[in-house]
Amino acid sequence: MSVLRTVLGDIRLVAARDLRIEVRSRVVLDQVLPFAVLVLVLFGFALDADHRTLRTFAPGLFWVTVLLSALLAIGRSASLDATDGTGTSLRMSGLSPVARYLGRTVAVLVQLLVLEVVLVGGIVVLYGVSVDDWLLLVVAGVVAGVAVAAAGTLYGALASGLGARETLLPILVLPVLAPVLIGATRAFDDALGVAAVDGWAWTGLLAVAALVLTVVGASAHGALVED
Amino acid sequence: MSVVELRAAVALLGRFPALSGVDLTIHAGETVLLRGPNGAGKTTLLHLCAGLLRPESGGVRVLGHDLTGAADRRSVRRRVALLGHATGLYDDLTVGENLRFWARAAGLSAAEADRRTDEARSRLEVPDRLVDQPVHTLSAGQRRRTSLAALVVRRPELWLLDEPHAGLDQTGRDLVDALIGDAVAAGGTVVVSSHELDRVAALSPRTVTLAGGAVVDGPSGNGGIR
To answer: Could you say which residues from 64 to 83 on chain A have a Cβ atom under 8 Å away from some Cβ of chain B?
Structure first.
């Protein structure tokens, strides 16, 4: 019990550190969010601002935008431990790799959820979509966010360790997240009422993917960052 | 009791041997000066003793742990302080936030972390006005002192200091000397890599000279007792 309490305390410590740094530096707020909105606008231009087409493809466009923007947030997050010896200090600190991984995943998740909220507003305003099932939308958004954050944190650490995170991260993580993109898009198809699919079934699959990615990430992270 | 025990230790940096068959024993309570030209292997030796590198061959025992095992290396790292060339501080966090973070990361309670943070700041003479200042606004010397304070909060058993006087003014250098003296007085062991031989030699009764990744003076295992 005390081990669990220690790990939970360390997770909170790491997540609070990352979020505090984000609040101070405002990288997600000032750079990632505007980028995400810009991508939504560009999709609108590319599809000739046809509201019917945009409404039909809004779920897919939403999740592609989330993934592209998440790459920036994840890369930024991974870079925090690659500057001025902070990675070495973490290795010397005694913080468990599991706590470091889960703490960072929580911080990335919080940033992704903020991003998703803004982007939902974006597709409502720019694409003219309406939400049929808010509960499904929220649950699918959170569960897919967990999957993206879990995979992103792991592959961010991997790319950072290979010393080429900016260029390597998308190549590593996007193929892994392709099933998440499909599941999240189908769930949003249902939530936004643009296709007759069982969104909850897809959300169930997303939950399995999120769980598997989190467990794999927590197990593998130590080998990537410790030795 | 030996705190560091290296027997024919070999360590690689990439594919290249940075240490080739080092024999060295350091006992509890000793202060040891590591000296040698650039590329001699001083930093690699410190990293090996810190548990950051896996020995390629030979025996490496630190604080009773055999460092060929990953779990032992992790255990040792918690008990060792390593001051490298980088500060190990988060630029966007304040001095106080950095110190508290590293104290909490060492497993201290919030109250104990605050207490030790204040104590470490006072020891390194980090002024109160800097506590709420982000690290990226500090001078190099102020960063170095904060970095040292982040190690002091952990109260390590083995101190591995790589050029600890670098970037510090005279007062800062004196503080480092006092810190080394205090660490030994408290029962700790200190290994200092430095090019400031006169200054560190005054603190250390023992010097080990490295060249080309090997100890080049003194009898094997003693690393040269002056």
So the answer is: 80, 83
